[in-house]
Write a structure and sequence with these properties.
This protein is mainly alpha-helical and 348 residues long. It has helices at residues 2-11, 19-31, 38-43, 57-66, 73-82, 102-111, 127-135, 149-156, 180-200, 211-224, 231-243, 251-258, 268-272, 295-302, 326-336; strands at 47-51, 92-96, 116-120, 171-175, 311-314, 320-323.
Length: 348
């Protein structure tokens, strides 16, 4: 090992006349911490080092020496060759910690354990809100900016006709420089995986003919309640309505269909204005999902709660009151929505 190292040092032009001194100095270099600057070392905080794609060992060593991190670029090159890692450096952004030695630095650069950044897609958000979330991340390359939905679908090449709802809500971690296309492809692959698994384990005799219909229903359930405990009950209402040929009559689909025209106040005129997403005027499911659905909502859509309820109304505290008859439902609306007085106990 020693003879190999000395030969490498000779090849690097360090000379042959002081082999013993070189060896001792090289050992000092291996054990001395790299220099990260007074502020990083005083605060014991890491600093970031970006290794561009295509930057080789010699160029990187020279750069680290010029920036004051390494006191000898040749020794670092010799270390990499002696470990047979000279061609194994991986591009990326690395967190260098105070006290790190040159061998530890080399191990990090070879490992590829670069810094990762989170991107969180939230349940109930629309596709355009997802795009805005991704666009706000400075670490991501934005290739889709300014494109129409159709152009985005073409760029993604996912085999879907409409992008709404087809990306799984979760926190994903990426290296700096990832493209928004890669982010969306990963979220879509995860959605396919979850949806296929849930579909394969679905309850029998559901009024749903495909995983896509399950996703559409799950997105409506996601928008109707933030309470996980209520999702199966709401799924049960919608499934029974579909089975009995009743319209879903759910406000979130109408609001989605209004798009930018919705001002925060859903009116009777809105409910009576026909559109593909108006489930008060049209039977069945809307044509596409209306938001991102999480796994709990997908599971609820495929495992609805048994019962006889066909209606529900918001109580005003985030929960809902469920009714089996229109008379009970109207009473609940009077009590919870119109601050009226109606005795619900007579329906128990």
């Amino acid at each position: 090992m020693r003879n190999t190292l000395i030969s490498l040092l000779l090849l690097l032009g360090l000379g042959a006349g002081a082999g013993s001194y070189l060896w001792q100095d090289y050992q000092r270099f291996l054990n001395a911490p790299i220099t990260l600057g007074d502020q990083a070392e005083a605060l014991d905080e890491p600093i970031l080092l970006e290794v561009p794609r295509g930057q080789g060992l010699r160029a990187l060593a020279s750069r680290l020496h010029a920036e004051g991190m390494l006191d000898n670029a040749h020794y670092f090159i010799a270390l990499a060759y002696n470990r047979q890692q000279a061609n194994q450096l991986k591009a990326g952004e690395y967190a260098l910690k105070p006290g790190m030695t040159p061998p530890q630095l080399l191990d990090l650069l070879v490992s590829g354990r670069s810094v990762q950044y989170p991107v969180t897609l939230i349940e109930g958000r629309t596709f355009h809100e997802v795009l805005a979330t991704i666009a706000a991340a400075p670490e991501i390359q934005h290739k889709l900016k300014g494109l129409t939905d159709a152009e985005i679908i073409a760029a993604l090449g996912l085999g879907i006709e409409h992008p709404e709802g087809w990306f799984f809500p979760d926190t994903y971690f990426f290296h700096r420089g990832v493209t928004d296309i890669e982010v969306l492809k990963r979220a879509h692959a995860r959605m396919r995986e979850v949806l296929d698994q849930e579909w394969s384990e679905r309850d029998p005799d559901l009024p749903l003919t495909s995983p896509e219909e399950a996703l559409i229903l799950a997105s409506v359930i996601e928008k109707e309640t933030a309470l996980g405990s209520e999702r199966p009950a709401i799924a049960g209402v919608f499934v029974r309505r579909l089975q009995q040929g009743m319209r879903l009559q759910t406000d979130p689909t109408v609001i989605y269909g209004l798009g930018d025209d919705f001002d925060g106040n859903l009116t009777r005129a809105d409910l009576e204005t026909d559109s593909p997403y108006n489930t008060y005027t049209r039977a069945g499911l809307p044509p596409t999902p209306i938001a991102l659905a999480g796994r709990e909502a997908i599971h609820a859509a495929l495992h609805p709660q048994d019962g006889d309820s066909l209606y529900f109304v918001a109580r005003g505290d985030g929960s809902h009151y469920f009714s089996a008859s229109l008379a009970e439902h109207n009473c609940a609306v009077q009590r919870f929505q119109r601050n009226g007085h109606c005795d619900l106990s007579r329906f128990q």
